[in-house]
Amino acid sequence: MKDGEVLPPGSTIGILGGGQLGRMTAMAAARLGYRSIVYAPEAHSIAGDVAVAHAQGAYDDRAALARFAAQVDVITYEFENVPEATVAECARHRAVRPGTKPIHFAQHRLREKEFFRESGLGTAEYQRVASDADIAAATALPGILKTCTEGYDGKGQARVGTREELAAAWHALDRRECILEGLVDFRCEISAIVARGLDGRSRSFPIGLNDHRDGILRTTAVPAGLPPEIQATAESYGLKLAESLDLVGLVALEMFVTKDGRVLANEMAPRPHNSGHWTIDACATSQFEQLVRAICGLPLGAVEIIAPTRMVNLIGEEANDWARYLAEPMARLHLYGKGKARPGRKMGHVTYVIPPKRSA
Ligand code: AMP
Question: Model-level pTM greater than 0.90?
Fold first, then answer.
């Protein structure tokens, strides 16, 4: 596909990664008449279960990637830890949307924070920690020490109050390159999900209010109930980010709102995001459909919320209560078809779309 060309329904989308985000992308694609092929290292995937094919291959298997690319019209990825080299390899054969740039920044927390600042987004105070000298010079205390790579859902992180604690935590993280972020006394956590199309036009879904437990997203509520100026800043951050990434696709930006009303960018994911699952049930266009539209060169869809909504993740054994959710008239149950419910594993979610009150 050449830049600017529209991929009509009937075309095939390649998805790198076989998890629930790929699964829900393939479901949205199918609804619009697209076919999906999933590429993942595992023999079986829950995304492959709802796609026309599952191609098993390692992320560094160039021949397998070339075969995959030859079968599809455009490629996207469902998680940002796909190796950058894999995305670059795919891009030699087919358009990858979004491409390597968002991955390059999203895979490395320090680069990511620097990119936020360069893009005009506020962040917490931060500094690099990669040596004893860095620890001696550390000022962002109390803070959170995070590995620059491979940390997610609160893993690879430690809260530290003093330089001694910082030193101990850094050693416990195997002296890997880390970022120390000043501890934000936040009022709440929010996220923006922004799509940007091939024509460069962007749209932000309404800001979601996120509640985490043990580092894992628990619920998202929309509207977030924030003062209009905070909502506007949060949306503008998401839009600025999409622009400076030169994105074609979707990006989620997680942010803190401080008690004194500032918005600080924490983390981005250039893909559909757990905090946007509510859009399936509460928007004319879901985040997954929006991604399909963006990467296929279609106009973006409406992002307005139909009614106030709350999404609750089903983590581990909570998904075993599926019968209870089915019995709740206003609950919309989504299960990802994963086998075993391990603690901390995201098994599904429930969306409550609350109908507007009838006028008297
Ligand atoms: P992260 O992996 O960066 O998304 O962090 C996981 C969770 O840890 C966030 O959702 C916050 O609840 C908390 N957290 C991360 N960074 C900070 C920070 N600088 N200050 C306060 N809390 C944080």
Answer: yes
